[in-house]
Write a structure and sequence with these properties.
The protein is 43% helix and 16% strand. By secondary structure, it is α/β, with parallel strands linked by helices. The chain has one domain: Sugar-phosphate isomerase, RpiB/LacA/LacB (Ribose 5-phosphate Isomerase B, Chain: A, 3-Layer(aba) Sandwich), CATH 3.40.1400. A five-stranded parallel sheet has the order 2-1-3-5-4, with helices on both faces. Helix 1 packs across helix 5, helix 2 packs across helix 3 and helix 4 packs parallel to helix 5. It is globular. The termini are far apart.
Length: 158
């Protein structure tokens, strides 16, 4: 069952076409989408610029979730994970989409514009958005990630 989400999307030149397709499918499903950061057609742009804009929207609460698309998804995830409050995951299939949400409480989805077809990408996005965080033992682990983010050693598990 789908719930409505607020999603910020960004892409570099390798992901812009896919980002537009994802944005349209989310809007069609009733989600609120902001295509925040993209390149002009035919122009090259740098993925950290997009990661910054989308990551800041998520970290500030302006958007519940972020989606970033570049060639491999790796650069986007590295850049987004530098922003306090972002937990960005590189996801390649429905299983990693599910696990990144249910176990890691990821709030930024990083997708490869080069390796994933549009149909698979749409399926991944839907699974990712519709999978809740499980909490429980996973909450303790996410708390440890947030401690690291604050520059603290993760508290030992009793």
């Amino acid at each position: 069952m789908s719930h409505h989400h607020t999603v910020a999307i960004g892409a570099d030149h390798r992901g812009i076409e896919a980002a537009q397709a994802v944005a349209k499918s989310l809007e069609d499903a009733g989600d609120t989408v902001t295509l925040l950061a993209t390149c002009a057609p035919g122009e090259s742009c740098d993925y950290p610029d997009q990661a910054w804009k989308v990551g800041r929207a998520v970290a500030s609460g302006e958007a519940q979730f972020g989606i970033l698309i570049c060639g491999s998804a790796i650069g986007m995830s590295i850049a987004a994970n530098k922003i306090p409050g972002c937990r960005a995951a590189v996801v390649h299939d429905e299983l990693t989409a599910n696990l990144s949400r249910s176990h890691n409480d990821a709030n930024v989805l990083c997708l490869s514009g080069d390796l994933l077809g549009h149909r698979l990408m749409q399926q991944i996005v839907r699974v990712w958005l519709d999978t809740p965080f499980e909490g429980g033992r996973h909450a303790r682990r996410v708390d440890k990630i947030m401690a690291i983010e604050r520059g603290e050693a993760p508290a030992p598990t009793a």
